C-alpha cells in the first residue's frame, strides 16, 4: 500500500497525517505517477491552515516529479517509464499521484527529479513575475523581499539576467550571503534595519521601479514607500500574514503607483503558456544558467517538520519531500 500526507481538519503542522493512501488507477486523461520528490510551498501552509478553503480531506502539496506508472484512456504522448513533473495540481505529498496529463511536463535528461520538483512552481512564478507581470527593463531597480527564499533566489537570478539591479531583504547574515551569491546587488536585513531607509539611500532618493513582495503584512507599507512615482507594487504572497484592506486613493499621493496581486494559475492559463514557462525554467536548469538551491530535504513522514521550518523562517531556497 502506498502512502500520502493528508489534512482531514485544518490547523497547525500537527494536522498533517501520513496515512495509507492510494489514488487508484488513472482516470481518462490522467497519468498515475510514482512520485520521487514533492515540492513544499507556502501555498501548502495556506491550505493546511484553511486560509485557502478546500473540501476536506485533501492530499497536501501541488508540485512534484516522478515516473509514469500507467496512463488513463485518451492519453497520448506519455508512456510508463517517462519522467515527468508538474505544478499547481493538488495531491503531491504522496508516494503515488494521479495527475492530469495536460499538466505534466517531461523532465529534460540531465535534470534530476529533485531539481524538477524543486523548480516548477517557484521557477514558473519567478518567470511570470519577470517576463509577464511587468516585463523587466535593463537598468531598472527592483526590491525583492525574502530574497533567500524559494522564489527569491530564482527571482534574483532571472532579474539579473535581464540587466535589472536587485536590492534584496532577508532576516539573517547566512541568507544575505545566499542572496548575494545568487546575484543581488545589495541586501538589507529587514528585521534589524529599516529597508525603506536603505532603499532611499541606495537609490539616491529616487526609489525602486518595482517591488516583489511575497511577505505581505509586515512589509507592504514599506514596500509602497520604497517605490518611485509610477512604480509597480507586485504583491504575490503573504508569508507574514495577509495585507489588510487598502484604500486605493492612497496610491495617488504615494506617486500614482500601480499595484497588482498576481497568481501563477493566471499566468499558466493554457497548455501553451505552461509549456512556455516550464520549458524556459527547465531548460535554464539543464544548461546551468539557473541554479536551484535545495536547502532542505525532509522525508514524507516528516512533512510537519518541513512546514514548521518553512513557517519558522528556518529555510532557504527550496524545501522538498522525498520518499
Ligand atoms: N502568487 C504566486 O503566484 C505565488 C507563487 C509562489 C509563491 N507565492 C508566495 O510567495 C511567498 C514565498 O513563497 P516560498 O514558497 O518561496 O517561501 P519562502 O520565500 O521560501 O519562505 C518564506 C520566507 O518569507 C520570509 N518571511 C518574512 N516574514 C515571515 C513570517 N512572519 N513568517 C514566515 N516567513 C516570513 C522568510 O524569509 P526571511 O527569514 O529572510 O525573512 C521566509 O523564509 C509565499 O507567500 C507564497 O505563497 C506566490
The CATH architecture of the largest domain would be Alpha-Beta Complex
Oligomeric category: single chain
Radius of gyration: 20 Å
Order of helices and strands: EEEHEEEEEHEHEHEHEHEEHEHE
Q: Structural class of the helices, strands and pairings?
A: alpha/beta
Which cofactor or ligand species appear? NADP nicotinamide-adenine-dinucleotide phosphate
N-to-C CA distance:
14 Å
The CATH homologous superfamily of the largest domain is named: Medium-chain alcohol dehydrogenases, catalytic domain
**What top-tier CATH class of the largest domain fits best?**
Alpha Beta
Taken from the alpha-carbon principal axes, the silhouette is: globular
Largest sheet: 7 strands, mixed
Tally of helical runs: 8
- CATH topology of the largest domain: the name is Quinone Oxidoreductase, Chain A, domain 1
Q: Which stretches are low in confidence, meaning pLDDT under 50 for 5 or more residues running? A: none
What share of the residues does DSSP label as strand, in percent?
25-35%
The overall number of domains is 2
Could you estimate the helical fraction of the residues in percent?
25-40%
Amino acid at each position: 500500500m502506498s502512502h500520502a500526507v493528508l489534512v482531514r481538519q485544518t490547523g497547525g503542522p500537527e494536522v498533517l497525517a501520513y496515512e495509507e493512501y492510494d489514488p487508484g488507477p488513472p482516470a481518462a486523461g490522467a497519468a498515475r505517477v510514482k512520485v520521487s520528490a514533492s515540492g513544499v510551498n507556502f501555498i501548502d501552509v495556506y491550505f493546511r491552515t484553511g486560509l485557502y478553503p478546500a473540501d476536506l480531506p485533501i492530499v497536501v502539496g501541488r508540485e512534484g516529479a516522478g515516473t509514469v506508472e500507467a496512463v488513463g484512456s485518451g492519453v497520448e504522448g506519455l508512456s510508463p517509464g517517462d519522467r515527468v513533473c508538474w505544478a499547481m495540481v493538488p495531491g503531491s505529498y504522496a508516494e503515488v499521484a494521479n495527475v492530469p496529463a495536460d499538466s505534466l511536463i517531461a523532465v529534460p535528461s540531465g535534470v534530476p527529479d529533485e531539481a524538477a520538483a524543486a523548480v516548477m512552481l517557484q521557477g514558473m512564478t519567478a518567470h511570470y513575475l519577470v517576463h509577464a507581470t511587468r516585463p523587466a527593463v535593463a537598468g531598472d531597480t527592483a526590491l525583492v523581499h525574502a530574497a533567500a527564499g524559494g522564489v527569491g533566489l530564482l527571482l534574483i537570478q532571472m532579474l539579473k539576467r535581464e540587466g535589472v539591479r536587485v536590492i534584496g531583504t532577508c532576516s539573517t547574515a547566512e541568507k544575505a550571503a545566499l542572496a548575494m551569491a545568487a546575484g543581488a546587488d545589495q541586501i538589507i536585513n529587514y528585521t534589524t534595519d529599516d529597508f525603506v531607509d536603505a532603499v532611499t539611500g541606495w537609490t539616491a532618493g529616487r526609489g525602486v521601479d518595482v517591488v516583489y513582495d511575497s511577505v505581505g503584512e509586515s512589509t507592504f507599507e514599506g514596500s509602497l514607500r520604497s517605490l518611485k512615482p509610477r512604480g509597480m507594487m507586485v504583491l504575490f504572497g503573504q508569508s507574514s500574514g495577509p495585507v489588510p484592506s487598502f484604500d486605493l486613493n492612497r496610491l495617488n499621493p504615494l506617486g500614482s503607483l500601480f499595484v497588482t496581486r498576481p497568481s501563477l494559475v493566471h499566468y499558466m492559463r493554457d497548455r501553451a503558456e505552461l509549456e512556455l514557462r516550464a520549458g524556459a525554467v527547465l531548460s535554464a536548469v539543464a544548461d546551468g544558467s539557473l541554479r536551484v538551491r535545495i536547502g532542505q530535504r525532509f522525508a514524507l513522514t516528516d512533512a510537519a517538520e518541513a512546514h514548521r521550518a518553512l513557517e519558522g523562517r528556518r529555510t532557504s531556497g527550496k524545501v522538498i519531500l522525498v520518499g
